[in-house]
Amino acid sequence: MRDYDGEIRRLMDAASRTEVVRAPKQRLHTFGVTKLHYYVVTEPSYRELIPGAAEAVVREGDVEAQRPVVVTPGYMARLEGFGEEAHSYFSDLANRFGPNSPGLLYKYANEPGDMNIVEGAAQGVAERISKQLGRDGRDLAAVIRGVDELWDVSLLKFIFEFTMASVGANVDDLRSRNLLDPDPRMEVPRAATRRIDALFRQAEAGGDPSELKRELDRWDLFDYYQDRFLGLFRGRSRGR
């Protein structure tokens, strides 16, 4: 039988031992994609088997952060893939702050790259990479001192902290353009209807309307846009 408590303690220990040696010099973009390059530097897990060995493992890769999406508790409750406890949480948020209170959803994709064994202690290697990135002006690169067997946990901790450091500025950018205010036509944030309009334009240009349909359902707005949505198919049938 799996020891879940022990696994959680192991993950928390890895997170507590993670250090961001060099954070990116820019925050996450509010209105575009952000691509971060990372170096996770760890002591090799075999170090205890080779006393005195001064080596470090360096893993490189890219994390791509999509443009932050404005969501609400009601929207999140309609997303696929969440369990019963998550839906209960979203319902509680809706009761406390309102079903259309705006928040931000961040989506990431990790693209692992090279892994190399280099000479030197892990901390020294991390600091050396950090200094080189500074000299090269690599503003969107990060160096993370992590745990070898759970290096992806160290990466996730960095992503979480970097996101939290960016949220305030992202919210200010959206608020300055009134995108968190409710659209006067319906009680959802303006950013939502802007995104729906953009998806309609893509579909009208010949794109796949399936993502548009999912977005309308997540916002519970299909009835409002039904005529326009069905018009996509009438236009395509006439074009044949």
In short:
With 240 residues, this protein is of the alpha+beta class. Helix content is 48%, strand content 20%.
Describe the structure using short key phrases.
7 strands, 240 residues, elongated, 3 domains, two-stranded antiparallel sheet, 5-stranded mixed beta sheet, single chain, alpha+beta
Write the SSE topology.
Elements: H1 4-16, E1 19-22, E2 34-42, E3 55-65, E4 69-71, H2 73-77, H3 84-97, E5 103-105, E6 108-119, H4 122-136, E7 141-145, H5 151-176, H6 190-204, H7 210-218, H8 222-238
Parallel strand pairs: 2-7
Antiparallel strand pairs: 1-7, 2-3, 3-6, 4-5
Helix pairs in contact: 6-7
Describe it for me?
- The protein is of the alpha+beta class and 240 residues long.
- It has three domains: 4-66 and 106-173, no CATH class; 69-105, no CATH class; 190-238, no CATH class.
- It is built from eight helices and seven strands; from the N terminus they run αββββααββαβαααα.
- The chain has helices at residues 4-16, 73-77, 84-97, 122-136, 151-176, 190-204, 210-218, 222-238, and strands at 19-22, 34-42, 55-65, 69-71, 103-105, 108-119, 141-145.
- The strands form two sheets. A five-stranded mixed β-sheet has the order 1-7-2-3-6, sandwiched between helices. Strands 4-5 form a two-stranded antiparallel sheet.
